[in-house]
Amino acid sequence: MIYTCHLATQEDTAKIAPLMAAFSQERAAIDPTRTLKPDFDFEGYISDRINKPLHYFWLLEHTEPKLPNYSAIVGYLFVYAQDEAPPPDLPADLVHRHHEARMYEPRRVGTALAFYIHPRHRKPKAIKQLIEAGIQQAKEWKITDLDVQVGADRQGLQALLERCGFTRTAVQYTCHFNLSPDEELPSLHPPHPQQHPIAIPEFDALPLRDPHTQELVMNAEGKPVFLKPLRNEAGEVLKTSQGLPVYPTPVQDPQTQAWVFDRSGELLTCPVLRDRQGQVVEYQGIPQYRPPVYHISQGQVTLKQDGEGRYLFCEPEQDPQGHIIFDPNGKPVYKPATVASQLPSMLPLNHS
């Protein structure tokens, strides 16, 4: 038997789905608090996760030298990576809040959301090979810590992980309570305002809501504010590389976190970043926007404005040929600042 490992692509979705279904069934069998949905769409779930930034599947593939046309995906390791430190371009006051809300020093952590190998292929060599593929990926991403959750009945895998350098840090216990279907249940949802039907001006318009209360945001005239897809100079909807419409990103006040309206009563939005060909600039599949310019005085962070009260936004650095400059990680490099009212009128934030 020969085993190899490689990163999954969309073409592998259908091959991973039965393995994830088996993993979920095994987990539900030993955990009374988990009941698997009978009609869950595993292929759709996997396809969505493969497209998400910082999510990756390492696959274990089995081949046989005597069967040149045979190959099968027999295992997978699903990992999500994140940096617990605040982004380097986060405003100073938000950095302070970020640190205040966390008691531990930040890590660059990779969390194994699922680890599964078909029972017929649970051989120490194959298991170790898949684990080492994940460890190698972690080293390439400069991850400091790896978290793996293993079922209580997988003593062999636990021992193998410890031989690969992992340390047992916790033991999880669960307790399930059966409730009568006729029993009245107290709400465990956080309070939220009552949602009233609203008239959507266009099928693709999104109502803007307060990030804290989820209430509709109203303009100075008392009408709800909607976000609509951005359009270019020809009136065509701007789309991402995956064909999704690009929506404007509203600006929040760094002190109150409330949405900001300019002097004319229009919602303030960050200009989307476009290259010389008019294409939306992306980073890891996410559209990039020119951030506001901030002013710090006596420890207070505010949005910077010019002498006429117009808000300022950062402009991208460009080379002599007019191409946008990116840092080593692929993110655009900005310099301050440009005036919002001097930008092309391609950010239609219409009010109904």
Verbal overview:
The protein is an alpha+beta fold. The protein has five helices and 15 strands. It has helices at residues 13-30, 42-51, 92-100, 124-140, 155-163; strands at residues 2-7, 55-64, 67-83, 108-117, 145-148, 206-207, 226-227, 249-250, 269-270, 282-283, 286-287, 294-297, 300-303, 312-316, 334-339. The strands form six sheets. The chain has a five-stranded mixed beta sheet with strand order 1-2-3-4-5, with helices on both faces. Helix 1 crosses helix 2 (42-51). The longest helix is centred in the N-terminal third of the chain and has 18 residues, at 13-30. It is globular, with a radius of gyration of 25 Å. It starts with a strand and ends in a 13-residue tail after the last strand. 14% of the residues are buried. Residues 338-352 have low confidence and may be disordered.
Short description:
The protein has 352 residues and is of the alpha+beta class. It is built from five helices and 15 strands. The chain has a five-stranded mixed sheet with strand order 1-2-3-4-5, with helices on both faces. It has a two-stranded antiparallel sheet with strand order 6-7. The chain has a two-stranded antiparallel sheet with strand order 8-9.
Q: How are the SSEs placed, and which strands pair?
A:
Blueprint: E1 2-7, H1 13-30, H2 42-51, E2 55-64, E3 67-83, H3 92-100, E4 108-117, H4 124-140, E5 145-148, H5 155-163, E6 206-207, E7 226-227, E8 249-250, E9 269-270, E10 282-283, E11 286-287, E12 294-297, E13 300-303, E14 312-316, E15 334-339
Helix pairs in contact: 1-2
